[in-house]
Specification:
By secondary structure, this protein is an alpha+beta fold. The chain is built from seven helices and eight strands, in the order H-H-H-E-E-H-H-E-H-E-H-E-E-E-E.
Length: about 180
């Protein structure tokens, strides 16, 4: 069996979970039907595998919009996904950390499961549908010029507003993870 493919039972279970979430959160994807989404998902087993990884790490992925004739799934868990916290920003930061290394980096994990880290615009758009990260924070894609200076960006939602901050790329916290997106 392909490493990046689900068994029929796993796929059916995931599709059932995704359909239930889709139905319960119609405000996230006005004008999109589940039939359109399901048809697209069933034709791309590797993307279905990536969605399963998003789900398994606590992301609670849901459709948040269209991408041309496809769809965009984003992590919609209330707080930063539990299975993707306590990570530094990228592999270079992980390698350079001498003591108390985290298990991995946000960029590495995103690549391993086949998703993209949200950009600042993605994060703000997600926050426009409802409030996320009221107690946690999430690494976001960092522009190269900031990364070259040793920094990385993260965001959260406090006091009714979405904030973007900076931190050293080597830092990691139990309450900071990352949110991802997948275009299907």
């Amino acid at each position: 069996m392909n490493k990046r493919a689900l068994s029929r039972e796993e796929a059916d279970s995931l599709l059932e979970t995704l359909e239930q979430r889709f139905t319960q959160n119609a405000h996230r994807h006005a004008g999109i039907t589940w039939q359109e989404v399901a048809s697209r998902l069933q034709s791309d087993p590797e993307k279905l595998w990536s969605l399963n990884e998003m789900e398994a790490t606590g992301g609670e992925p849901d459709v948040t919009g269209r991408d041309g004739d496809g769809f965009i799934f984003m992590d919609c868990s209330q707080e930063s996904p539990k299975g993707r916290r306590s990570l530094c920003y990228d592999h270079a930061a992980l390698r350079s950390r001498k003591k108390n290394k985290p298990e991995n980096s946000a960029v590495n994990v995103a690549s391993e499961i086949g998703i993209e880290i949200l950009t600042e615009d993605d994060y703000r758009n997600l926050q426009s549908s409802e409030s996320f990260d009221l107690k946690t924070s999430s690494w976001i894609e960092t522009p190269e010029e900031i990364r070259e200076l040793g920094g990385a960006l993260f965001s959260d939602h406090r006091y009714g507003r979405t904030f973007t901050y900076h931190n050293g790329v080597e830092s990691y916290y139990a309450s900071r993870g990352f949110r991802g997106k997948l275009k299907i």
